[in-house]
Amino acid sequence: MSILKIKNIKKSFGEDLEVLQDISLAVEEGEVVSILGPSGSGKSTLLHILGGVDRPTKGKVYFDGVDVYQQKEDQLAIFRRRQVGLIYQFYNLIPILNVLENMTLPVLMDGREVNQEFLTELVATLGLEGKEKKLPNELSGGQQQRTSIGRALMTSPLVVLADEPTGNLDSKSGKVVAEEFRKINEELGKTLLMVTHDPQMASRCKRVIFLKDGYVMNDVRKEGTEEEF
Ligand code: ADP
Ligand code: MG
Asked: Closest Cα to atom 15, ligand 1: which residue?
């Protein structure tokens, strides 16, 4: 079964800005998908609609069989917190909280207990050992982004959505972060959708979707890419 399915999504802002015209997609569990398209083509908007953050003007979003926007506001908020891991270009870490505190905040806000074993494992997977007590301003950009990846994963979301996750990094840190995304998919088995301008990231995805003028212009599944996710 598709883990994520959208049908005839349309999104307008106000009367005359029609950003998404008619988008339908199905994403299978464990897939890694990159979303490309010119600036302003609605990539971030689409990601937000997929993640339960922004209501479509028309159309349906099904997440693991659940009709996302049929849910009441409070259910939708819980859905967002538990099922979706969002990662942005700018890390949005809380400056006065250290690495561990930033990573565990969404779990605590959800009223759940932190799984210490998983936290330790995640810190190691993300190469953040020794940085646990550091504040964001004591970290490099790559370390900050890895912390924000950790924060997105701590709630064990079904799907990870990333919006230009290497967009603010130099190519060396970008490579490290790209490697983390490979692990998220291969080792943690997460379904992953990411908007990216980074050819290095896009070339490693088995499926590439190209958005233009509010439509999916191209939806390509590649076979046998050498350095793939
Ligand atoms: P992309 O991520 O592909 O660059 P976006 O999805 O951010 O594109 O934006 C697509 C279009 O929608 C842009 O013209 C942008 O200005 C507009 N837009 C995005 N969010 C809003 C909003 N909340 N209100 C009004 N216009 C918006
Ligand atoms: Mg964008």
From this structure: 40
What pLDDT sits at residue 46? 96
224 CA distance to ligand 2 centroid (A)? Answer: 29
Per the structure block, which two tokens stand in for 225? 């890419």
Q: Whose CA is nearest to atom 7 of ligand 1?
A: 44
**Geometric angle at alpha carbon 102, from 115 and 157, rounded to 5°:** 55
In ligand 1, the atom with minimum distance to the C-alpha of 39 is 4
Helix (H) or strand (E) holding 63: strand 58-63
Determine the Cα–Cα distance for residues 229 and 225; give it in Å rounded to an integer. 9
- pLDDT tens-digit series, residues 120-133: 999 999 999 999 99
CA distance 66 to 61: 8
Pick the residue whose CA is nearest to atom 1 on ligand 1.
40
Flag whether the pTM goes above 0.85: yes
Amino acid at 23: I
Atom of ligand 1 nearest to the CA of 54: 23
Pairing of strands 207-212, 32-36: parallel
